[in-house]
C-alpha cells in the first residue's frame, strides 16, 4: 500500500490537467464528462495553456505501457509530431492490435513500409482528375436523385427529418461507390436497413469498445467469445462475405475487360487491383474497409456540424449564399431558375473558400518510439 502511494505520488507529481485518482487515474473526470468529452478536453487544454499530461490508468506497469497520455493542441507540437518527426510517432502496437480485426494492415492501421506504399498509391490516385470526376459523379447522382427528393417530400408533408442520419446514409453510399463501385442505396425512399451498413457500424462500435478495456481483458473476451466480441466477429463475417463477393466479381470483370475492352471501372479498389494482380482478397478487403472508415463518418459529421453552425449563425449563412451566388453567376449565367437543376460541380466547389474552413476531426492519437525534445 505504502509503496503504491510512493509510486503514485512520483508518477502524478509532474502531471497537469484533470485530477488523477489512485488506480482510476483521470477516468472519473472522463466518465463525469462523457456527454461533453471534447468540451471537457478543450477546458483542460485551456486551463493548462495548450498541453497537459495525464494518467488514464494509475496502475504500476500498465501506466507506463499505455496509461500516460500527453494531450496537446499546440501547433508547434502538432508540427513536431505529424511533420518533423512523423516516423517517431506511429500508430503503435496497442492501437494496431485493437483495430487489427477490422482494418487489418490497411492505411489507417499500419506504419512503416506497409503504410508508405498505400499512402503513395492513394496520394497518387487522389490527385488524378478521373478520381475527382468519379467522386463528383457518385455524389451528384445521390444528391440529385435521392437526397433532394427526400428533403422535398419532407418539406411538402411538413415532417421533420433526422439530417444526421440522412447525411450518414449519403456519405456511406458515396464512399462505397467511390471505393468499390457499388452503391448500396441506403439513402432512398423509406430509408431501408442495409445489412452491410449495419454490420460495418456494429463492427466499428465493438472495436471502439476495446479501447475502454485493458488489452488483456478484451483479448480474453475475444478468446472466450463474450459480449461485444461476439457481435464483432459476427459483423466482421458479414462484412467480409459482402466485400469478398465484390472483389471476386471485380477481379472477373477486370479480366474480361482486358480480354474484350468492355466497361471501365474507376473506383479505388479497381485502381489498386490494376497496380498489381497478386494482392490477396483479404488485403484488398482491408484497403476497401479503411477507405470506407476514412471517408464516411468524417464527411457526414463535418456536414452535420456545418449545418448546425449555419442554423446558429444566420449572418454567416447569408455570406455563404452570397459566395455561392458569385461563383454560380460566372459558371451558370444569371438565370437563377436553372441554378438548382444540377448540384455543384467539383470545379465550382473548389472555388468556394468557406468549404475549406470546416474540419471536424476533434482528436487524433499517436504513440511514440522514443523521447525527442521538440526544437524551438
Ligand atoms: C471532412 C471530411 C474528412 C476529415 C475531417 C478527415 C480527416 C482526416 C484526418 C484527421 C486524418 C489523419 C488520421 C491520422 O493521423 O492517422 C485523415 C486521414 C485519411 N483520410 Fe481523411 N478526412 C475526411 C474525409 C476523407 C475522405 C472523403 C476520404 C476518402 C475518400 C479520406 C481518406 C483518408 C485517408 C486514406 C487517410 C489516411 C492517410 C494516411 O494515413 O496517410 N478522408 N483524414
TrEMBL record:
Transmembrane segments: none annotated. Keywords: Iron, Metal-binding, Oxidoreductase. The keyword Metal-binding applies. GO terms for molecular function: heme binding; iron ion binding; monooxygenase activity; oxidoreductase activity, acting on paired donors, with incorporation or reduction of molecular oxygen. The keyword Protein biosynthesis does not apply. InterPro entries: Cyt_P450, Cyt_P450_sf. GO terms for biological process: isoquinoline alkaloid biosynthetic process. Gene3D superfamilies: Cytochrome P450. It comes from the Eukaryota. Belongs to the cytochrome P450 family. This is Cytochrome P450. It comes from Macleaya cordata (Five-seeded plume-poppy).
Amino acid at each position: 500500500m505504502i509503496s503504491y502511494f510512493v509510486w503514485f505520488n512520483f508518477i502524478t507529481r509532474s502531471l497537469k490537467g484533470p485530477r488523477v485518482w489512485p488506480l482510476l487515474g483521470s477516468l472519473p473526470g472522463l466518465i463525469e464528462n462523457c456527454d461533453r468529452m471534447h468540451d471537457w478536453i478543450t477546458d483542460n487544454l485551456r486551463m493548462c495553456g495548450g498541453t497537459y499530461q495525464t494518467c488514464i490508468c494509475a496502475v504500476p506497469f500498465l501506466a507506463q505501457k499505455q496509461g500516460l497520455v500527453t494531450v496537446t493542441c499546440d501547433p508547434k507540437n502538432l508540427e513536431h509530431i505529424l511533420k518533423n518527426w512523423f516516423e517517431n510517432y506511429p500508430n503503435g502496437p496497442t492501437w494496431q492490435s485493437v483495430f487489427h480485426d477490422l482494418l487489418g494492415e490497411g492505411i489507417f492501421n499500419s506504419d512503416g513500409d506497409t503504410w508508405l506504399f498505400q499512402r503513395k498509391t492513394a496520394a497518387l490516385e487522389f490527385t488524378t482528375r478521373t478520381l475527382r470526376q468519379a467522386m463528383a459523379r457518385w455524389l451528384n447522382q445521390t444528391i440529385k436523385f435521392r437526397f433532394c427528393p427526400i428533403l422535398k417530400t419532407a418539406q411538402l408533408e411538413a415532417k421533420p427529418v433526422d439530417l444526421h442520419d440522412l447525411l450518414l446514409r449519403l456519405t456511406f453510399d458515396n464512399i462505397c461507390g467511390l471505393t468499390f463501385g457499388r452503391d448500396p442505396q441506403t439513402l432512398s425512399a423509406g430509408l431501408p436497413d442495409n445489412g452491410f451498413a449495419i454490420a460495418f457500424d456494429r463492427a466499428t462500435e465493438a472495436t471502439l469498445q476495446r479501447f475502454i478495456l485493458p488489452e488483456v481483458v478484451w483479448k480474453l473476451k475475444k478468446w472466450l467469445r463474450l459480449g461485444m466480441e461476439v457481435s464483432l466477429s459476427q459483423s466482421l463475417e458479414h462484412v467480409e462475405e459482402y466485400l469478398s463477393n465484390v472483389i471476386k466479381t471485380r477481379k472477373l470483370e477486370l479480366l474480361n475487360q482486358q480480354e474484350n475492352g468492355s466497361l471501365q471501372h474507376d473506383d479505388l479498389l479497381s485502381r489498386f487491383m490494376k497496380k498489381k494482380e497478386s494482392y490477396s482478397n483479404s488485403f484488398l478487403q482491408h484497403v476497401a474497409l479503411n477507405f470506407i472508415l476514412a471517408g464516411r463518418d468524417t464527411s457526414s459529421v463535418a456536414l452535420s456540424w456545418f449545418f448546425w453552425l449555419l442554423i446558429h449563425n444566420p449572418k454567416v449563412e447569408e455570406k455563404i449564399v452570397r459566395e455561392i451566388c458569385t461563383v454560380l453567376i460566372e459558371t451558370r449565367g444569371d438565370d437563377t431558375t436553372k441554378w438548382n437543376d444540377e448540384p455543384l460541380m467539383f470545379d465550382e466547389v473548389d472555388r468556394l473558400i468557406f468549404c475549406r474552413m470546416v474540419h471536424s476531426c476533434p482528436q487524433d492519437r499517436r504513440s511514440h518510439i522514443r523521447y525527442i525534445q521538440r526544437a524551438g
